[in-house]
Design a protein that fits this description.
binds coenzyme A, alpha+beta, eight-stranded mixed beta sheet, 8 strands, 5 helices, Aminopeptidase
């Protein structure tokens, strides 16, 4: 998994996002198929551990990959509590969406999801020329919607009946945060300003 190392570690006040190592894969794989972790808002399942390991290893060289690019690791006490990533979300438009799961239930409600997404957004605006970072969320997933809005994402619209899971179609909220909005966010939002994009 040497190419995974091409992704930089992202350091926050209480946690870091780092590329997955082999030792992380079993725990994070189990979250995918645990209805207590992912349900009721999504339909993610992964069929085999080997497929999962291959997808994680290939993710850094595939902008559209949905596999985890990062594990969310607490500094104190040291523990992996989640996974996160981003993916190219449209074949023509320059849309990249973030995603995130705090897989350890006891670690939820402590601000770790918020910190992880802030780190991801900050990284994407620093490392790419993107004008916008997005996210799509089942409208019924109130914790995730609140998390995005706390960070400063705007609800740009809704894909009505955009996702089928648990036996019916679900409306999906489309969230976006522009580079200008991120650069002019209040200091309490964390991080230092990532204004100008790198040269393309
Ligand atoms: C959505 C999800 C990632 C949120 O993660 P989380 O770590 O619980 O989120 P946070 O702790 O940052 O925020 C949750 C609450 O904790 C509160 N909180 C507690 N301490 C906090 C702190 N130090 N800093 C910030 N928020 C804090 C927040 O205010 C927030 O409250 P509210 O949402 O009731 O207003 C998590 O519920 C999850 O993994 N869900 C399943 C997967 C999923 O739905 N992923 C998103 C798919 S789009």
């Amino acid at each position: 998994m040497s190419d995974v190392r091409a992704l930089p570690t992202l350091d926050g006040p209480r946690l870091r996002l780092r590329p997955p190592e082999l030792a992380d894969l079993r725990t994070t794989f189990d979250w995918y198929n645990d209805p207590e972790v992912v349900a009721p808002y999504d339909r993610f399942t992964v069929d085999s551990f080997d497929d999962y390991a291959r997808a994680v290893a290939a993710a850094p060289s595939d902008p559209a990959s949905l596999a985890p690019r990062y594990v969310v690791e607490l500094r104190e006490p040291a523990a992996v509590v989640g996974v996160a990533g981003y993916y190219r979300a449209h074949p023509v438009l320059e849309l990249t969406d973030v995603w995130y799961v705090i897989g350890v239930r006891d670690a939820r409600g402590k601000g770790y999801g918020t910190e992880a997404v802030r780190l991801l957004v900050d990284h994407l605006f620093r490392a790419t020329a993107l004008g916008r970072v997005g996210a799509t969320v089942d409208v019924e997933n109130a914790p995730s919607c609140r998390l995005l809005e706390r960070i400063g994402f705007h609800r740009d619209g809704v894909h009505r009946s955009g996702l089928f899971h648990h036996g019916r179609w679900h409306d999906v909220a489309v969230y976006g945060l522009t580079r200008d909005e991120w650069a002019s966010r209040p200091p309490a939002s964390g991080g230092t300003a990532a204004g100008a994009p790198p040269a393309r």
